[in-house]
Specification:
Helices cover about 60% and strands about 0% of the residues. By secondary structure, the chain is mainly α.
């Protein structure tokens, strides 16, 4: 199979796997991440085939929806790619990228790095910021039946990885626990630039939100 055929087969597989996914983690999220990754990898020394493949497969089995199993995604990607006779080296690299891409808050130590990981991770993080990031956060909060905001529940900035996963705090808290921290974790030059704009937009949104709420922060 040519690289193009592999990518097309992967698109079909991912669309089908994610057809009932929550709105923030559906095919459209994948498509936006692929587009972000293309944009920010223009000036990065990456293997573009690996970037495309990892972008497409990065949320194929989110640990959040698999009882916290962080190996679910890499294993599913491996099974799929092996079925297409993709070479082991590629499968292993894509698996490592998928395994390491998520920032789940707290004290997660990264055990692998590569230029392709940096690009896909930045691309995924950008989609959690700005107007899209706001839409996704409230969609996720609604999916989990969370409060939008509760002035008496303060954000937990020291949140550990385990508590982050279990958290049922209001969605506004998620901005302080994750979304506003993303800007300083960007790794590529283009990613950093886009993140600045999206960060500013979230700050404007929050200021307006509190003003309309009429309450205390
Ligand atoms: P990633 O895929 O980058 O590891 P997640 O899967 O945790 O991140 O989050 C994916 C999307 O769901 C993001 O847009 C994120 O903001 C949103 N999300 C995750 N956890 C929460 C939460 N507790 N409240 C609101 N939105 C959330
Ligand atoms: Ni994602």
């Amino acid at each position: 199979m040519s690289e193009n055929e592999i990518l097309n087969a992967t698109i079909r597989f991912v669309k089908n796997e994610l057809k009932d996914a929550e709105g923030g983690h559906d095919w459209w999220h994948i498509e936006r991440v692929v587009n972000n990754a293309r944009l920010i990898s223009r000036s990065e020394p990456v293997n573009h085939f690996i970037v495309e493949l990892a972008s497409l497969l990065h949320d194929i089995a989110d640990a959040k929806f698999y009882d916290g199993d962080e190996d679910a995604g890499p294993l599913k990607a491996r099974a799929f790619l092996a079925g297409l006779q993709v070479k082991e080296e590629t499968i292993a690299l894509v698996g490592k990228i998928i395994r390491n891409i998520s920032f789940k808050g707290g004290n997660f130590t990264i055990d692998f790095s590569s230029p392709e990981l940096a690009v896909v991770q930045d691309a995924d993080r950008l989609d959690a910021m700005g107007a899209i990031g706001i839409a996704r956060a409230f969609n996720y909060g609604g999916f989990k039946n969370r409060e939008i905001y509760n002035p008496s529940i303060k954000p937990d900035l020291q949140i550990t990885r385990e508590d982050y996963k279990k958290s049922s705090a209001p969605t506004i808290n998620h901005f302080y626990e994750k979304l506003l921290l993303l800007k300083d974790r960007m790794q590529t030059e283009t990613g950093k630039k886009i993140a600045e704009e999206r960060h500013r937009f979230m700050e404007i949104f929050l200021a307006q939100f509190y003003q309309e709420w009429g309450g205390k922060k």
